[in-house]
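Table 4 source record.
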Amino acid sequence: MTTERVDRVSGDVVVVGGGLVGLAAAWRIAGHGGRVTVVERDAPVRFTSRAAAAMIAPVGYREPADDAFLRLRLDAQREWTPFAAELVEQTGIDPAYRRIGSLVAATDKDGLARVVALREFHAELGIESSLVDAAGAARLEPELRGALGGLQVPGEGCVDPEAAGRALVAGIHARGGTVWSGAGVAELCGDATRISGVRLVDGSVLAADVVLVAAGAASCALPGVPESARFPLRAVKGQSVLVADRPGDPLVRTVLRAGINVVPRGDGRLMIAGTVEDGAAPGDRNTVLGAYQVLQRAIAAVPALAGCDVDTWCVGQRPVAPDDAPVLGPSGVPGLWWSTGHSYYGILLSALTGRLVADALAGDAAATVRIGQFTVDRFAAGAPRYTSLDHDRHA
């Protein structure tokens, strides 16, 4: 575990990245009394966070039950209830976190076998879930077609990242922090012995005791990141689309996983997410092929979606480390901390990792130990601590 101990939360902290991961950390840092500034090259929650399915669902496949990353995700799900309640209490803005339950639909024999195995794994973990037959799936989702059965998970839910982002920005301001939009980072200031701030593209410099990089897939590519602090981080592009739901009679009522994720946003829209484009070129452009793949799978599962109006096309770059787990805490270079690499779980993990990173910066021993399981030095020997998982990305 990286041994650098930094107790500077009462000083200046610059958070690079205005997605939900960076905003949640900044809000918690400000709650500890830190003078925090978030710098975001576009607008908060404009890129990857907005494109996410935003399912608060920690377990979608069988994996080692004692894995620390799995435990982090399970704890992250529990974190969302108090996190959302505190945001509402402080800001009056509802982040639209709702435990509406999920349905993992199975359309063939292999799918049925997968949901049976997932039900067994849920039982091992103490997660409430139940198998349903075709009629049960139809009761949960009347517009769903082709399901032979599935798995209902009543404790799972979803959140609206845009609403959560608005609440977090308001909360940061209420605690004396600052969120700068249109503030791209030209480079980190300092060298391999210490990072001391950031230089923005307009030439201005923000000095900081700690720079917390939460810039998603762009984190390691930021100019000025010392070579000794870098680690393998790839971008997995995802394209998705927000559509208007049917007024008064929702087309989808649960967090639906049926060859694609269809998730109610809680504001009359449905998120249909999304593609998994490993090795795609960086950028924030939607493509014809991506649109086709998203809509083809969605309409196959829920044909009535074909009549919905398109609200917004979205695109993002998931930041994925070799073992799929996040990279948290000190980088090994004084003054530089990470909160990135949240892979396919950024929205789920954001509330918990934001608190853990802020608590560790404040010197909390338990948080320091917890994030020590996910520090960057696990890559130093070339062998990740956790096993990269074989995701069923759309189910």
